[in-house]
Design a protein that fits this description.
- The complex is a heterodimer of chains A (274) and B (247).
- Chain A is mostly helical and 274 residues long.
- Chain A has two domains: 8-234, MetI-like fold (Orthogonal Bundle), CATH 1.10.3720; 235-274, no CATH class.
- Chain A has twelve helices and no strands.
- The longest helix of chain A has 31 residues, at 144-174.
- Chain B is of the alpha/beta class and 247 residues long.
- Chain B has one domain (2-245): 3-Layer(aba) Sandwich (Rossmann fold).
- Chain B is 38% helix and 26% strand.
- Chain B contains nine helices and ten strands.
- Chain B has helices spanning 42-49, 75-84, 100-110, 116-129, 145-157, 175-190, 202-208, 226-231, 236-245; strands at residues 2-13, 16-27, 31-35, 57-62, 65-67, 85-88, 163-167, 195-198, 211-216, 219-224.
- In chain B, strands 6-7-8-3-9-10 form a six-stranded mixed beta sheet, sandwiched between helices.
- The model of chain B has no long low-confidence stretch (mean pLDDT 94).
- Classes of the chains: A mainly alpha (274), B alpha/beta (247).
- The A-B interface holds A 130, 132-133, 135-143, 146, 150-151, 154-155, 158, 229-233 and B 50, 52, 79, 82-83, 85-87, 89, 91-98, 106-107, 110-112, 139-142, 152, 155-156, 159.
């Protein structure tokens, strides 16, 4: 059999690719956390139509959402050093441009992108929170900031989680662009391996599988977070068990089943077992 | 002794005058019933007192704290009024992600700076007073309308406001839930809580209100004791309204 495609290389490539995992996670987690904070700020500026800032934010969001991620990465890569050089020249900032870590440019670009995309999600969900919630808080003496922090933001966040989650996953995939500025993330690590083995297809299959698993894991994680935050919709195991019992009762209508189930049903697993 | 005095209150929305110079006074321990058809300005009046709407003109006095010109009320003035009044809304406005107990506790710990454990004890005592001890860990969406409004009443009462502002507290309820809420309000009134109640429950107001104010098109058309306004209304417009409202 000709050695055109070697599936075993897919597996053997994985450890080397995973060496780039910490960098991939660093990019996506850092840009998500900082980007969301900025995004929330942008949303508040937009909602309260703060003059000047409102226009600047509008242009920033529209520009960032309207240009390819790759182009933005290059803009940060070539643009930031220029800004720093000027700062050094005029204000004597003394920042060493040439030794700046490449990772910085990647983080700046991806933070911007996350901020711009999340701003819209935050704005929509914040505006979606019933005004009565804010009014109730204000009228009971809470400051506007307290009311935001304790009531409005948590409610908005719960609604925003699914869209933030899908943005996070698409950003995770987007981090594969970091290789163009020679930051060694998973994609870069994979390319390094393949450049030695010349097994590009096998490596890309391994890489694709890893991204797929990661995306699935993070999607799942966001669903869990959403469920945790929706604490008012959480149903206790006991209640779920009793609902299950009722359902069984309805379906069977048999007295003995009911009696059997009612004995010591403490959680849903027991109920199902019975 | 007068607790709250509102004079010359004006408010317009987009050029339409909703309140056209309102004078209202609430005495210590008094229940003031606010009646009038929908759109008469009852809600706007209550919301202006709590500065949920910015009044255009008028003078407010809460005990000896006076705001001479409410249109230019300072942040501290607004904070003072909000701190010493408490609003109960038609649509309850309970905090969705907080349990009944947390709804009642929040303002105690946040704006009154009462330690959490103490605040929980106070809140749970107030929930007991409205008959909801067993529901204190329930979230609003697991409560009936009547229960939600009782939590809202506990949330307002726990702050020991000088005046409680009730904006049609039973209008959003199923008829069978109205009674339990009215009972709680009556209980608060019996304990000497001063309040203004905007309501269409004429029979109830006739029983509990010490003073009744009939509003029409943004002005106080007639006011007096409950008996006087309900049984011997002086103005034709009041008679018309009451005959339609079937007291």
């Amino acid at each position: 059999m000709p050695d055109i495609f070697n599936p075993s290389v897919i597996l053997s490539d994985i450890p080397a690719i995973l060496q780039g995992l910490p960098v991939t996670l660093e990019i996506v987690v850092f840009s998500a956390v900082i980007g969301w904070i900025f995004g929330l700020g942008l949303a508040l500026v937009k909602m309260h139509r703060i003059p000047v800032l409102y226009q600047i934010c509008g242009i920033f969001v529209s520009f960032t959402r309207g240009t390819p991620e790759l182009v933005q990465l290059f803009l940060a890569y070539y643009g930031l050093p220029v800004i720093i050089e000027y700062a050094n020249y005029y204000w004597g900032a003394g920042i060493p441009v040439r030794t700046l870590p490449k990772m910085l440019f990647v983080l700046v670009a991806f933070t911007n992108i996350t901020a711009a995309y999340s701003a819209e999600s935050f704005r929509a969900t914040l505006e979606g929170v019933d005004k009565g919630q804010m009014e109730a808080a204000l009228s009971s003496g809470l400051s506007r900031w307290s009311a935001y922090r304790r009531i409005v933001l948590p409610e908005a966040l719960v609604v925003a989680i699914p869209s933030l989650g899908s943005q996070f996953v698409s950003m995770l995939k987007g981090t594969s662009l970091a290789f163009v500025v020679s930051v060694v993330d998973m994609t870069s690590a994979g390319q390094l391996v393949a450049s030695r083995t010349y097994r590009y297809l096998e490596m890309y299959i391994a890489l694709a599988l890893l991204y797929w698993i990661l995306s699935g894991a993070f999607s799942g994680l966001f669903r869990v977070v959403e469920r945790l935050l929706k604490r008012n919709e959480r149903v206790s195991e006991g209640l779920r068990a009793s609902v299950f019992v009722q359902r069984v009762r309805r379906l069977t209508g048999r007295e003995e089943v009911e009696r059997g189930i009612n004995v010591g049903v403490t959680d849903i697993r027991t109920a199902k077992a019975v | 002794m007068s607790v709250l005095q509102i004079s010359g209150l004006r408010k317009q929305f987009d050029g339409t005058e909703i309140l056209r110079g309102i004078d209202v006074e609430v005495n210590e321990g008094e229940v003031v019933g606010l009646i009038g058809s929908s759109g008469a300005g009852k809600s706007t009046l209550l919301r202006c007192i709590d500065f949920l709407e910015q009044p255009d003109a008028g003078r407010f006095r809460l005990e000896d704290y006076e705001i001479a010109d409410v249109a230019s009320a300072a942040k501290a003035d607004i904070a003072h009024f909000r701190r010493h009044t408490a609003m109960v809304f038609q649509s309850f406005n309970l905090y969705k992600l907080k349990t009944a107990l947390e709804n009642v506790t929040l303002a105690l710990t946040d704006s009154r700076k009462i330690p959490a454990s103490q605040a929980r004890d106070i809140a749970s005592e107030f929930l007991a007073r409205v008959g909801l001890s067993e529901k204190q860990d329930s979230f609003p969406d697991k409560l009936s309308g009547g229960q939600r409004q009782r939590v809202a009443l506990a949330r307002a009462a726990v702050l020991k406001p000088k005046v409680m502002l009730l904006d049609e507290p039973t209008s959003a309820l199923d008829p069978e839930n109205v009674g339990e809420v009215l009972d709680v309000i009556r209980g608060l009134a019996d304990q000497g809580q001063s309040m203004i109640i905007a309501s269409h429950e004429m029979g109830f107001l006739r029983q509990v209100a010490d003073h009744v104010v009939f509003m029409d098109h943004g002005v106080v058309e007639e006011e007096g004791s409950a008996e006087q306004v309900f049984l011997h209304p002086g103005k034709e417009r009041t008679q018309q309204f009451l005959s339609r409202a079937r007291v």
